[in-house]
Specification:
alpha/beta; 20 helices; globular; homotrimer; uronate isomerase, domain 2, chain A
Chain lengths: 470, 470, 470
Amino acid sequence: MKDYILNEDRFFDPDTSVRKIARELYNEIKNLPIISPHGHVDPKIFVTNEPFPDPSELFLIPDHYIFRMLYSQGIPLESLGIPDKEGSRKVVDSKKIWQLFADNYFLFAGTPSGVWLDYEFSVVFGIKEKLNSTNASIIHDEIKEKLNSPEFLPRALFDRFNIEVLSTTDAATDSLLEHRQIKESGWNARIIPCFRPDALTNLSDPNWKLHLKNLGSLTGSEITSYKGYLTAIEKRREYFKKHGAVSTDHGVLSPYTRKMHITEAEKLFQKALNGDITVDDTNLFTANMLMEMSRMSTEDGLVMQIHPGSFRNHNQVIYDKFGLDKGCDIPMRTEFTQNLQVLLNEYGNDPRLTIIVFTLDETNYSRELAPLAGHYPSMKLGPAWWFHDSIEGMARFRHQVTETAGFYNTVGFNDDTRAFVSIPARHDVARRVDSNYLAGQVAKHIISLEDARMISYQLTYGLVKKAYKL
Amino acid sequence: MKDYILNEDRFFDPDTSVRKIARELYNEIKNLPIISPHGHVDPKIFVTNEPFPDPSELFLIPDHYIFRMLYSQGIPLESLGIPDKEGSRKVVDSKKIWQLFADNYFLFAGTPSGVWLDYEFSVVFGIKEKLNSTNASIIHDEIKEKLNSPEFLPRALFDRFNIEVLSTTDAATDSLLEHRQIKESGWNARIIPCFRPDALTNLSDPNWKLHLKNLGSLTGSEITSYKGYLTAIEKRREYFKKHGAVSTDHGVLSPYTRKMHITEAEKLFQKALNGDITVDDTNLFTANMLMEMSRMSTEDGLVMQIHPGSFRNHNQVIYDKFGLDKGCDIPMRTEFTQNLQVLLNEYGNDPRLTIIVFTLDETNYSRELAPLAGHYPSMKLGPAWWFHDSIEGMARFRHQVTETAGFYNTVGFNDDTRAFVSIPARHDVARRVDSNYLAGQVAKHIISLEDARMISYQLTYGLVKKAYKL
Amino acid sequence: MKDYILNEDRFFDPDTSVRKIARELYNEIKNLPIISPHGHVDPKIFVTNEPFPDPSELFLIPDHYIFRMLYSQGIPLESLGIPDKEGSRKVVDSKKIWQLFADNYFLFAGTPSGVWLDYEFSVVFGIKEKLNSTNASIIHDEIKEKLNSPEFLPRALFDRFNIEVLSTTDAATDSLLEHRQIKESGWNARIIPCFRPDALTNLSDPNWKLHLKNLGSLTGSEITSYKGYLTAIEKRREYFKKHGAVSTDHGVLSPYTRKMHITEAEKLFQKALNGDITVDDTNLFTANMLMEMSRMSTEDGLVMQIHPGSFRNHNQVIYDKFGLDKGCDIPMRTEFTQNLQVLLNEYGNDPRLTIIVFTLDETNYSRELAPLAGHYPSMKLGPAWWFHDSIEGMARFRHQVTETAGFYNTVGFNDDTRAFVSIPARHDVARRVDSNYLAGQVAKHIISLEDARMISYQLTYGLVKKAYKL
């Protein structure tokens, strides 16, 4: 077993001329602060600032990238300590779970999870050996011990990770209690919320009326009309802004947009209140709400993020037993050119608006997204997302987007993660992949080294701050 | 004319650091036995074990990869000796055909056919020059002479190729006579059938009722009901299993799956018996039969292969004159996420089942197939298929699949070929491409050399044996 | 500021073994004459042969690749001197526009526009520094001065660019006056028209009846029937042929083809004359006209070009203000296998016909287009087009097309440009990318250097002349 030291040139092109430039570019930006404008870290960990319970709880149980891979190879979720949808679970022996994970660690070879875990073990926790069946128990104890030390408390890690801004993602009806508590605690980290109204705009959500009721309570009056509903949403946006939010987030099945006449919308809203809606109604209403959200963004300045194309909870068996976010969300083919046309015609030329669009369907990079972002002033391209937040995925993004959209219609990296400890690992991969891409451009004499340096800074730090108005 | 010696480092990355590792990995696995779990070699050649008739008959006439390319450049199929659909043909002068082939051999530059032919000529037949107009006649005679020697008889080649298992593909109503004859001959090669019931499950097949009648004869009673039909199919599967089959094979237009109620299915079956069905009926019935086949596989353990997305016989003019498999099958866009959902929900979590899915639509590698295989325990990804069984095609497969599905949700290589003599050439390309891919990962410090070695063995030998239960 | 000398090895693979071969191949073909069989240069510039007015007018205002990028970053088109659709404009200060362009020149890093401009400035105009805010004014004056010298007159540049054939693109009702004037001037450059009947075949064109009237005037009788319409089109094709045309050009939303019965077509034509048509009618009629155009091509030998998949004038706001071709045409997903089947079944086997197909949807390269072109004798693949006429785009084309279609079912490069001065830059990029692709094949021992040399000549010069019958 060789020492587990990450190679300094990892992920760079093997060609020495490219590698040399990549290393040079990377060294200039590797220590820039992390801007994390989109993610799913639970803010509560920074309120309590208590030690993470144990290695399995930290690395495995909250990370569906990891346990879906184990599941795909026949390992039951129960045996990994994944709680069922009521929150209870059979196996709670962290060490036993960890052993199972270690026994199957070879499955992650060549995957981004493998790359991130290597970084977390080696760089964050200083583990000296690669995890395997034999050393599982020792490594478990080593990590567990560290987790109990002051340097591994959430706030200490936040500082050590050099995070300048961290955005969480929060339901529109969230009280933002934790965000307030963090602020009131006097700890001066910038942890901001992001306004995600999906549960309110998706009429097919089984709990839609419940969410609506919460919205009413929070904004001070029962929601009985579409107009009242819009006003309440506007109030909540204002509330989020006051708590530091700079953006909204919209997860939709398709990026279909269509403006409904107010009367038409009101009628549909009443139908929804009466629980009497069709699939077409739902799609139309979501399409209309993307329009309304764009309008509100032109007014209040919140940056709008749209990420369509995930077939959520594809595996009903797992969903029924374990609930949401269990690695069963599968990408679907997505269409942007026609779907976004109504929105872009109405708001795409408006200088007040920034719309950041993500995709799980890479075929759109060169065909639809780069041409759209390379024309409409309001539209920018979000980074390679989810399954594509990987060495190859991020490289494909640059290779397929840059020639048409350039660099300046993209918005830097975001980690989109629930796994707090993986944040520096993910940003490091992005910085390496971009450095390597730019180095290739320099080595092929497409851009100069001087240009590459400027762009490198922009991709790491400048563009994300500008796009998200940070 | 330079000597026609294949370069030892062919298909490896030109970068010396990658090439060195690729060579090392390749050398460790290049001599492993060939497992060919899916293909179309005619088993009769091993029964009679007679010499292949002549070079044109061996290389050109059965290989639609080759004559479609010649046809695309304006060379009539008649002039290549391709028999019409009644089996008769005008040109039968092997040497004249061979000359025409040689005159146009330059068309295959950069194609997998070119690469395979180079290997077959050079390695299998020891030809010392590249085929061209001038040497065509000499090479023709040289090959023809060799074909008549004992070392070039089918069984001798089978042994020389180091084939451990060869699966043919056989109609559900095939008697498997040849498989029995091979076994009874005492020659102990493992040549196994694969159960392909398409002609029985595709109601739009003009000969469906004829196939049904054959099914009845083979299973001992006339098929008059859906229930009887299912029972007869189950019997045939059992028969195939007894003759060594480990898998079934399903070529469908789309991977649409849907479970019909037994009454509904029975009704539709009766309509089909009366010849009174619509396109929708046909699609629905095929969708339903994929469900039934999955169920049967959970019961009898046969591995299920699904390969959708080919528009068969696109060129009606050629089809009317020459029949099936004349290079006129054109890929279509294919959708998996929604289409396979019903099947995967019903059987995708069942540890008894293995479903191997192929695609002609590469856009699905990263978008749909890798995420599905990276979650569902039953589903595995078949290798790059047909048009994509090529140097670039196989590389794209690894680059687009690995990060989400890992290596262990793939199933090694299969050659899927009618051209027996091309089998070692094809497996050699696959081994080289995989070695090179892994070498790139090592050179970029994504995986260690140690890991690469283990994975290399798995991709060449381990995974295919496991997936196909060999 | 370093000297602005383009590197001799630009765009070649950094690996020295590949680069060496690429350079060798490139040097052999770099000085071959330019064949430009498809483009949009205004022939009038060669009639008058007057100096180009000024740098902004030459580089920026006619080039929607450039100003759409500036617009995407919030720069109003008005400030760039783009005329509105009536042709009037606010800003006409060339130097002010040029300064704005220079201030934002960094936006083009990594884009083909950037690469072409670098070439034009450096090679065509001998500018010694890269354009930036500081040197904008000086460079403006330097270019302006040159434009007034005899060596920079359009005809002088045409000769200097070593253009053997230049095809323009012309409405079917164009008088071809300029083409005649060029010929009559005694200047012996081969500048030929291309027959583009879209305005006549697209029933949804708001000016369709006006175009029809023009067609009638030009062919000597009012068009009152479908039959008369076809005859008039045939006459115009004949007229174009007499003026040197070798091809027709068809821009369609989708490549849908369908043959209408003559009675059905006549009926629809009458409906269109009465202004009473639906979207379905329009689509059907276009589908039918692709069939008619194929038939005519089998008769008169004009090569047929089909380029589908652009959603024209996506941004209605810009279209209403500035009109066509303002960088708002966005690609759409396109389907070929089913759409082209009717046409290919009727004419795809006809040796008299050549159909060159382009796509904006790269997913079709390996899935549909290469398999179709690799089978049908009539069908060839046009080069990487529009957004994909770039270093990466052209490389993707070769990587995804060659293995199935080979090299000989492609037709060389075309520049498709309005920007006359960019022609040598564009052809140079294509020659470099192809040289590099071939060098990679040689370095990987897929093809021999000898083969690569022959193919390189074909890709640059041989195939385009053959395909367009030049």
